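Quick review question:
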């Protein structure tokens, strides 16, 4: 019995290892994501030579009432430069089926942010993420975006050519 438990534990640990991952961090959003709440992620540049992909990871539940998601993402470089992007992601199919993965009501989406980039400077980078959601026909953003539970970023090495 002990051998079976050890074998199952080893299989789970090996399956959960992600050899491509260089950095991964989540931040919880409780009681709705406030429109003025920027989530900050800081990380050292892995290197200044190799290419990387950066993803925004998002966990949402059935309280999320939209089929899309608008985010404002700023990357602050060690040299003081800032790149700001307004991004739109599809979160559900037209029939309402979530595009994220998961067996329960909590779904996880891996959203492209930057593809095949090289970090040009060594030092610490900072990524700030805020939502930019609003109800159709309104100018003001939603005060609180319900249904988002966790937001994160992940940096992965790119496949070698």
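Suggested answer, residue by residue:
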């Amino acid at each position: 019995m002990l051998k079976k438990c050890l074998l199952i534990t080893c299989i789970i640990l090996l399956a959960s290892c992600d050899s491509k991952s260089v950095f991964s961090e989540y931040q919880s959003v409780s009681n709705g994501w406030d429109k003025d709440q920027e989530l900050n992620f800081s990380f050292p540049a892995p290197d200044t030579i190799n290419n990387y992909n950066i993803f925004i990871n998002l966990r949402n539940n059935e309280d999320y009432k939209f089929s899309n998601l608008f985010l404002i993402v700023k990357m602050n470089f060690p040299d003081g430069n800032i790149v700001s992007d307004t991004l739109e992601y599809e979160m559900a199919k037209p029939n309402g089926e979530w595009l994220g993965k998961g067996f329960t009501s909590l779904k996880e989406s891996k959203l492209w942010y930057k593809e095949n980039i090289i970090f040009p400077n060594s030092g610490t980078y900072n990524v700030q993420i805020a939502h930019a959601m609003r109800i159709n026909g309104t100018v003001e953003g939603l005060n609180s975006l319900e249904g988002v539970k966790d937001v994160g970023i992940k940096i992965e090495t790119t496949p070698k050519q």
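Why it works: The domain at 20-157 is CATH 2.60.120 (Jelly Rolls). DSSP finds one helix and ten strands in the chain.
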